[in-house]
């Protein structure tokens, strides 16, 4: 495999610039460095064929038309580029796109482009000839539902309203290239503007300035003035409504969902204010959330200005909104300071889980945040155990090795939860005040820049750990980052709220009645902890007793329901009826699908039972989920 090696030195970046007008963009495009960090940032992105050290896209002008009958997206993309002297080609990533025409501003001809077939998940390298005077290139292309893994076209029946079709995209990690020829590497940023034409009854939204109402002609205009990496390029089209939630926050959802969404997300404005007070100003103008149909493969996706969210976090009692705090936190960790390659993803996700926890602490109190941290600790232990059992101990390192691998296959809970605990350890060691001021400075110093694990470590040393000779040895950051497993200096978190759960559960385990469990004050994390703690074989009588008293099978809280399914499916609980099948057909969120299908494999019905349900459910899933489930179930 041929990889792009990014050796971005200050000299190289300066040499790339031409006109004065680009001076501003160029500063933002600089690699992560200053006097206090590495003089040059070197890293390899194994997942892009672009060669940004030679030529880069600075701005995109995108005109697209969405055809719901054909399930296609046809577009013309015009790119403003910068290139080094003597460079005669710009390289873009593409996958499964039909390229109709390539032009450039300094030539009338339709350019012939070379496309090299490479790894299937990486797609192809588009090589476009340029000259010293080339300022823009443009590409006319077509993406289809079958080829474009980022896109999911939904039939009306798969939406809340059942009347109109829907389209949404999911570009992270390397799917942007399936609907936009681009330099698909997280370290390369561009600004964009777009004009998108959709059926008149629908509204289009992007990770950019957005409309708040439908218009008569179905043509929508967008602008993203802050440079963003391709994985944050996003589009959603559907029968949508908007409701403002505060001075720079709001929510989009289908009409039948908008009221419950607005209630559930009432705290968003205070989350934005809290986050800004913690780590510096919110840099993106608006912060809105769109509630997507239930096939959305993730809980949330931090598309700038417009978080994409699963409807499964609408529980009716705001108890699952930590997910919004998480996606919001990415507006700093990830969208502002961005992992240089997918091997550094813990810089995005670990920081975000930490930041999310701080937002939750401010708004819902330390007890609540502590419970979330403890659940994260449970997840971390389970994840490490599972990775070890799969001979994947190497993936328990914070800096993962993704050479030759699809980054999606390397994605585990490790960068999230182990990352969180490393940052928590630093906080506990140096004290909150020092740590918060370090973080604030970090986000500001590297805003709109890329960060590698190594340059973060350098910066951490210079700006923080060097202040006290003991800190480095207490923390041992290198061990956390480059070695496997969980170091024994991992912070221990305790929660009296969870101790209560342990006590109540113990009474039941020893033969007490479920109805005697004192749970009237319990909140969602306690219920999750309760379900997680039940272990061993459960009898039908025990399961139906718990279900009778607490109503887990029919719970309106998707997290509780999924945790319960995971626990009782392997015990062949008869009270489930069709609820598991119904859930798996409706919901496409991978975080739920993986454990539930795994549980089905452990049940009496085994693989055939899992496959019977999967056959029915699969057409509803986005490729991100179906590819993972295909692997899990050996489905061809
Ligand atoms: N950016 C991620 C989702 C993602 C990661 C997509 C890697 C593709 C590749 C998002 O912020 C995320 O972490 N979502 C979680 C939320 C949870 C940790 C609160 C999810 O979807 O479950
Ligand atoms: Zn995240």
What would your notes on this structure say?
With 636 residues, the chain is an alpha+beta fold. Helices cover 37% and strands 21% of the residues. It has a six-stranded mixed β-sheet, with helices on one face. Strands 16-17-18-20-19 form a five-stranded mixed β-sheet. A hairpin with a 6-residue loop joins strand 7 (114-117) and strand 8. Helix 8 (414-430) crosses helix 9 (432-445) and helix 14 runs parallel beside helix 16 (558-568). The longest helix is centred in the middle third of the chain and has 24 residues, at 366-389. The radius of gyration is 25 Å and the shape is globular. The two termini are 26 Å apart. The model is unreliable at 1-40 (pLDDT under 50). Bound molecules: ligand BES and zinc ion. Zinc ion (ZN) binds at residues 326, 330, 349, 352.
Bound molecules: ligand BES, zinc ion
Largest sheet: 6 strands, mixed
Unreliably modeled segments: 1-40
Strand proportion: 15-25%
Query: CATH H level of the domain at 55-329: which superfamily?
Result: tricorn interacting facor f3 domain
User: Which percent range fits the helix content?
Assistant: 25-40%
Q: Helix count, per DSSP? A: 20
Number of strands: 22
Radius of gyration: 25 Å
Structural class: alpha+beta
CATH class of the domain at 55-329: Mainly Beta
The average pLDDT is: 93
CATH topology (level 3) name of the domain at 55-329: Immunoglobulin-like
Shape: globular
- Supply the CATH architecture of the domain at 55-329: Sandwich
Task: Compute the separation of the termini in Å.
Answer: 26 Å
| Order of adjacent strands in the largest pleated sheet | 6-9-4-3-12-14
């Amino acid at each position: 495999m041929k990889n792009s090696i990014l050796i971005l030195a200050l000299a190289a970046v300066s040499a790339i610039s031409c006109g004065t007008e680009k001076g501003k963009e160029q500063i933002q495009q600089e690699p992560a460095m200053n006097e206090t960090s590495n003089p040059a940032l070197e890293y390899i992105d194994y997942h892009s064929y672009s060669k940004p050290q030679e030529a880069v896209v600075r701005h995109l002008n995108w005109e697209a038309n969405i055809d719901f009958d054909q399930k296609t997206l046809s577009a013309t993309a015009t790119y403003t580029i910068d290139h080094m002297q003597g460079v005669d080609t710009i390289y873009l990533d593409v996958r499964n796109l039909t390229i109709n025409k390539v032009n450039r501003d300094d030539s009338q001809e339709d350019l012939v482009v070379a496309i090299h077939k490479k790894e299937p998940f990486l797609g192809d390298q588009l090589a476009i000839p340029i000259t010293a005077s080339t300022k823009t290139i443009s590409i006319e292309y077509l993406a289809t539902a079958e080829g474009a893994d980022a896109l999911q076209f939904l039939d009306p029946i798969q939406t809340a309203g059942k009347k109109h079709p829907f389209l949404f995209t999911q570009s992270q990690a390397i799917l942007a290239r399936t609907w936009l020829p681009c330099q698909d590497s997280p370290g390369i940023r561009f600004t964009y503007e777009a004009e998108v034409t959709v059926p008149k009854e629908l509204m289009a939204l992007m990770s950019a300035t957005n409309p708040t109402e439908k218009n008569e002609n179905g043509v929508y205009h967008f602008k993203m003035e802050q440079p963003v990496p391709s994985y944050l390029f996003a589009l959603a089209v559907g029968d949508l409504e908007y409701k403002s939630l505060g001075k720079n926050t709001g929510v989009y959802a289908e009409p039948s969902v908008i009221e419950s969404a607005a209630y559930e997300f009432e705290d968003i404005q205070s989350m934005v204010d809290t986050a800004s007070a913690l780590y510096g100003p919110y840099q993106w103008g608006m912060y809105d959330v769109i509630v997507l149909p239930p096939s959305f493969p993730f809980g949330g996706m931090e598309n700038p200005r417009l978080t994409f969210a699963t409807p499964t976090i609408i529980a009716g009692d705001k108890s699952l909104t930590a997910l919004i705090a998480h996606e919001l936190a990415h507006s700093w960790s990830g969208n502002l300071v961005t992992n240089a390659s997918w091997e550094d993803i813990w810089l995005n996700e670990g920081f975000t889980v930490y930041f999310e926890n701080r937002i939750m602490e401010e708004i819902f109190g330390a007890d609540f945040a502590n419970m979330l941290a403890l659940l994260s600790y449970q997840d971390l232990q389970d994840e490490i155990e599972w990775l070890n059992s799969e001979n994947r101990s190497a993936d328990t390192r914070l800096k993962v090795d993704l050479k030759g691998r699809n980054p999606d296959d390397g994605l585990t809970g490790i960068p999230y939860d182990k990352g969180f605990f490393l940052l928590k350890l630093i906080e506990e060691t140096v004290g909150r005040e020092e740590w918060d001021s370090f973080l604030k400075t970090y986000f500001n110093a590297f805003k709109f820049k890329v960060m590698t694990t190594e340059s973060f470590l350098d910066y951490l040393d210079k700006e923080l750990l060097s202040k006290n000779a003991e800190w480095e040895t207490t923390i041992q950051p290198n061990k956390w980052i480059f070695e496997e497993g969980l170091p024994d200096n991992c912070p221990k978190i305790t929660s009296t709220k969870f101790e209560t759960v342990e006590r109540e559960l113990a009474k039941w385990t020893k033969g007490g009645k479920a109805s005697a469990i004192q749970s009237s004050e319990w909140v969602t994390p306690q219920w999750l902890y309760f379900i997680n703690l039940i272990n061993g074989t459960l009898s039908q009588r025990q399961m139906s007793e718990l279900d009778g008293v607490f109503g887990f099978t029919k719970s309106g809280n998707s997290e509780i329901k999924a945790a319960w399914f995971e626990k009782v499916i392997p015990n062949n609980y008869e009270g489930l009826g069709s609820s598991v099948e119904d859930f798996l057909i409706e919901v496409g969120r991978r975080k739920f699908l993986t454990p539930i299908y795994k549980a089905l494999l452990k049940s009496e019905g085994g693989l055939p039972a899992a496959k019977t349900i999967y056959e029915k459910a699969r057409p509803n899933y986005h490729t991100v989920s179906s590819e993972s489930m295909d692997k899990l179930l050996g489905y061809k």
